[in-house]
Amino acid sequence: MNSLDKIKSRLPLFIFISPILLWLFLLIVLPHIDLLRMSFRAENELGDMAWSFSNYLEFFQEPVYWFTFARTAVYAIMVTFLTLCIALPVAFYITKVVSPKFKGFLSLLLLMPFWVSELVRIYGWMILLRESGVINHYLVRWGILQQPVEMLYNDITMTMGLVYTSMLFMVVPLLSVLDSLDDSLIEAAFDLGGNMFTIVRKIIIPHAMPGIASGCIVVFMLSLGNYLTPNLMGGKNSLWFTEQIYNQFIASFNWNQGSAFGFLLLLISSLIIYVGLKLTNQKLSKVVQ
Amino acid sequence: MEIDLSVEHVSKRFKSFTAVDNISFEVERGKFFSILGPSGCGKTTLLRMIAGFEEPSQGAIFIRSQNMADISPNRRPVNLIFQHLALFPMMNVAENIAFGLARRNESKKEIKKKVANILERVNLPDFGLKKINQLSGGQKQRVAIARSLVLDPTVLLLDEPLGALDLKLREQMKIELKKLQVEVGTTFVYITHDQSEALVMSDHVAVMNEGRFEQIDSPQNLYSKPATPFVAKFVGNNNRWTGKAIEYDGETAQLQTSTGEKLLAQSKKPLEQGAQIELFVRPESIIIEPGEQLNTLNRLQVIVSSILFDGANSQLLVKGPSIEKELLISLPQNRQFEYISVGDAIEIGWDIRAGNCFPVQ
C-alpha cells in the first residue's frame, strides 16, 4: 500500500520527465553506444569485422588527421576568445550604457540574423566577399584595387564567419549576467579611484564569470562541431575536423573510422571544457544555470 | 576656520525638471553636515554632483578651494558611501578596503598595515578574510565606511547608508557613526530623510525641499526655531492651526483661528492685519491641566479622544469645538496623568513663546 502510494505520488513526475528521457536515450545515448561499438571494430586480415583498436591507431599514425584535429581545437579556442572580446563590450553597452528603451530593440537587432538559417547567412557572406562579389566590385570601381581579390577561402574569413555565427550565443548569457550587476558597484569602484581598465578587470569580469564561462562553452562546442562555415568559407588548407568525419562516413563510407573520429572530437571538447572550468575556477553546475 | 566643501549657486536640470535649484552652502573642516529632505527633493542629485557622478547645470563646487569642474569622480578627494553600500561581493573584506589603496599604487606592506588599522578602528579586527555575504547588516555598514575612510578623503559623502537597517541597529549605528566622525575628524556630508538621524548626528542640518534649502541651522534651532512652515512640519511632530492675524505689536500677534478661537503667538516676521497665518505648536510644548498661576498661556478646553501608548513617546489625541484637526499632546509617563481616560474633559495650555507663527504665502 505504502509503496503504491509512493508510485502514485510520483506519477506526474514520471509522465513529465519521460519525453526528455526517451529523447536522451533514443536519440543520444543509444546511437552513441552503437557508434562507440562501431569505432572499435575493423576488418581483420580475412576481411571479416572484428574487435580492434585500428581505427584509433589510424588517427595517431596519419599526420593529416592529427594536424586537422589540433588545428580545429586551436581555431575553436581562438574563435571563442575573439567572440568573447567582441561580445563583452556589446553586452556591456546594451545593459549599462544605452537607455532602457533601446535595450530591447538592440537585443532584437542581435537576434534578427538568426531568423534565417546559417546556410543563408553564410551564402550572404559569400556574395559579399567572393572575387566577383559586392565588396570587390566597389573596391575596384572606386579605384582602391586594380583588380578583384579573392577574400573567401582562407583562415581569416573562416574565423570571421565562425565568430559571426557564434556571437548571439555569447551575448545572451553575458546580457543576463551583466544585467544583474548593480550599477552602484561600478560607480563605487570609480569613486574609490578605479579607472575603466581596473573596473573591467576587478569588477565586471569577476562578476560576469559564470556568464562568460557558459557563453564560452556553448561557442566553443558550436565552433568545434561546426561543419557548414569551415566547409563553405574555409579554403583547401582550412580543413576542419568535422569534414574528416564527414569524409569517412559519406565519401569513404568507412563508418567505423568515422565513429572513432567522432569520439575523439567528443573527448577533446570535454577535455578542453574541463580544463577551462578548472582554470577559471568555475563549477559546471553553476555555469549552466 | 577652514572650509572643506563649498557649493556655490549649484543647479541641476533634467530636461524641464529642476532637481536642484540654486543651492549654496559651506561646510567647515571636521563638521558633520546633514541634508534632510523628503524623498525626491533632490538631495541625492546634489550629493552625486559633489561626488562627481553628475555635472551641475549651473554653479560650481569647491573642495578645499579647488574647483571640481571637469574632475572625474576617481580623481576627487571625496568618497561616497552608497545607499546600498555597493561592497564588492567578489572580494573579501580586506580586498574591498584595499581596492582604493591599490589604485593609488601603494606598496603591499603599506596597504596591509592600513587595512588592519582601519578594521581595528571600526571594531572589526580579524574580519579581513571574511566574505561580504558572511557579514551582518551592521558589519557591512562598517566595512563600507572603512573602505572609504582608509583613503583619507577630504569629505566623506553618505547617501542614507542606515536606511536598510532595522530600527534597533539604526539607533546603535547612529551613535557609532557620530563617535567615529569625531574620532577621525573627517568632514561628513550626510543625506537622509530621517529627521532623527540628522538631528542626533549633525553639527549643522540643511532642510531641503523641491530642490531648495529651506533652512541651514543647528539641530536645536531647526527644531525650536523653524524658519519656514515646511521645516516646522517636516522636522518633528507639530500641531497646526490656520487662521488670520488680528493684531501685531512687533513681537506678539493676536490670532483668530478658522474655528474662531483667539490665540496669542510670537512671530519674527511682521504680520499685516488680516493676513492668513499658520501656527505650529509642538506636542511636548502643550501642558496638561496647567496651574492657575501661569498667565502667559493660551488655554483651551478639550476632550480626550484617544490615548496612544508608546512608552516614553506616549501621546494624547484631543478634540474640541475650537480645534480643526485633533491635537497631539505628549503624555509624560510619570504617573501624574494616569487618571486621564478617553472621553474626559481636560484643560490644556501652552506658552505663547512656544508657538511658531508664519504668514501663508
Describe this structure in words.
The complex is a heterodimer of chains A (289) and B (361). Chain A has 13 helices and two strands; from the N terminus they run αββαααααααααααα. By secondary structure, chain A is mainly α. Chain A folds into two domains: 1-39; 60-287, Orthogonal Bundle (MetI-like fold), CATH 1.10.3720.10. A two-stranded antiparallel sheet of chain A has the order 1-2. In chain A, helix 1 (2-39) packs across helix 12, helix 8 crosses helix 9 (196-224) and helix 9 (196-224) packs antiparallel against helix 12 (255-279). Chain A is globular, with a radius of gyration of 24 Å. Chain B contains eight helices and 20 strands. Chain B has a six-stranded mixed sheet, with helices on both faces. Chain B is of the alpha+beta class. Chain B has helices spanning 43-51, 93-103, 108-121, 137-149, 167-184, 195-201, 219-224, 229-234, and strands at 3-14, 17-28, 32-36, 58-63, 66-67, 78-81, 155-159, 187-192, 204-209, 212-217, 239-248, 252-257, 262-266, 276-281, 287-288, 297-308, 315-319, 327-330, 345-351, 356-359. Chain B folds into two domains: 3-228, 3-Layer(aba) Sandwich (Rossmann fold); 237-359, Nucleic acid-binding proteins (OB fold (Dihydrolipoamide Acetyltransferase, E2P), Beta Barrel). In chain B, a hairpin with a 3-residue loop joins strand 11 (239-248) and strand 12 (252-257). The two termini of chain B are 37 Å apart. Chain B is 23% helix and 35% strand. The chains are: A mainly alpha (289), B alpha+beta (361).
Strand and helix map with partners:
The complex is a heterodimer of chains A (289) and B (361).
Chain A: H1 2-39, E1 41-43, E2 49-51, H2 54-61, H3 63-97, H4 100-111, H5 118-129, H6 134-141, H7 155-179, H8 183-191, H9 196-224, H10 228-233, H11 241-251, H12 255-279, H13 284-287
Antiparallel strand pairs in A: 1-2
Chain B: E1 3-14, E2 17-28, E3 32-36, H1 43-51, E4 58-63, E5 66-67, E6 78-81, H2 93-103, H3 108-121, H4 137-149, E7 155-159, H5 167-184, E8 187-192, H6 195-201, E9 204-209, E10 212-217, H7 219-224, H8 229-234, E11 239-248, E12 252-257, E13 262-266, E14 276-281, E15 287-288, E16 297-308, E17 315-319, E18 327-330, E19 345-351, E20 356-359
Parallel strand pairs in B: 3-8, 3-9, 6-7, 7-8
Antiparallel strand pairs in B: 1-2, 1-4, 4-5, 9-10, 11-12, 11-14, 12-13, 14-20, 15-19, 16-17, 16-19, 17-18
Helix pairs in contact in B: 2-3, 2-4, 3-4
